[in-house]
Design a protein that fits this description.
single chain, 312 residues, mainly beta, Beta-galactosidase, Chain A, domain 5, 7-stranded antiparallel β-sheet, 6-stranded antiparallel β-sheet
């Protein structure tokens, strides 16, 4: 599998925000910087290198979309409409990880000073995914935030499973236990997935009331939140917090790596392991021929305050 090239990149700007994107490196967002400050503020962990990288060994920086499935699939096989599906993604671990949209080049379709539109087509009968689809990815900057919109249309002759997600690497090293106490996640249910991310979270249980959970930033691990509120705020430093919002993403996964100064906060529309629960997957993930599914995420800076922290 050839390395993914990072260059050439696309730069967009609006207000005090500047974003850099690499279509060839899986359509990745390389950086999002707020420039009205000394020094400028990184809203995601920036990707500084221009060197190509192996598709299964990417730098832990930037942000990418997950499709046609999200998070880990171990083993990389599942049952779909009575058929055994085995995916060959050439991973050293033989796992499916975040789909493959982030491991293929995207085509830059059009740009403006503040936006970029990318496309990726997948032809079916492929060992990585036996269905055809067309994907569209739009980055749009405004004066207040970055909007990321991804949509996928099933161009196959039969229904296929599809889940979408966004995977940003967010900085939080400047936060201390004292400053993180006020930040919360609002969701119906919490699932502890484990440090390796191989745990499963079965959906379909009876609906419950919304609950409030503290952000899991104090120790390494992976936690999924079922039917979360659609927004979360995270500490960045003493003066600023990050506001992440999503549409069409029922769930949220937070991964705090061991020994790293970042946290992955991932809006997703399927819980980890959903493809392995056959009946649930066919009910929740099925996308008919000609139909589309989308996900919209926004990320921006807000002034940190005790009031805004607790209202996240």
């Amino acid at each position: 599998m050839p390395p993914l090239a990072v260059c050439p990149t696309v730069r967009i700007q609006a207000g005090h925000y500047v974003a850099e994107i690499s279509p060839s490196a899986g359509g990745r967002l390389l950086s999002l910087t707020y420039t009205d400050g000394q020094p400028p503020i990184d809203c995601i962990v920036p990707w500084r290198s221009e060197e190509p990288f192996h598709p299964h060994d990417w730098p832990k920086a930037g942000a990418f979309v997950m499709l046609p499935f999200t998070n880990r699939l171990a083993p990389a096989q599942f049952m779909w409409l009575g058929k055994d599906i085995t995916l060959d993604n050439a991973s050293p671990t033989q796992q499916g990880l975040h789909g493959f949209g982030h491991r293929r080049p995207w085509q830059l379709m059009q740009t403006t000073s503040s936006s970029a539109e990318l496309h990726m087509g997948h032809v079916g009968a492929d060992a990585e995914w036996p269905w055809s689809f067309e994907a569209r990815l739009v980055y749009q900057l405004s004066e207040g935030e970055l909007t990321v919109q991804v949509s996928v249309c099933n161009t196959s002759a039969e229904a296929m499973p599809l889940s979408l997600g966004w995977h940003p690497f967010l900085p939080y090293a400047a936060a201390t236990p004292k400053t993180t106490e006020a930040w919360r996640v609002h969701a119906q249910r919490q699932h502890v997935i484990g440090l390796d991310g191989l745990g499963r979270a079965e959906a379909g249980m009876p609906q419950g009331p919304m609950q409030t959970f503290p952000l899991p930033l104090e120790q390494a691990g992976t936690v999924a939140y079922e039917n979360y509120s659609g927004q979360i705020k995270l500490p960045l430093n003493r003066d600023w917090q990050l506001a992440l919002r999503s549409q069409h993403a029922s769930h949220l996964l937070i991964h705090t790596p061991l020994g790293f100064s970042h946290v992955c906060v991932e809006p997703i529309n399927a819980l980890p392991g959903a493809l392995l629960y056959t009946a649930t997957a066919q009910k929740l993930l099925s996308l008919a021929p000609g139909e589309s599914r989308s996900l919209v995420c926004t990320l921006g800076l807000e002034v940190a305050s005790e009031t805004s922290n607790r209202s996240a």
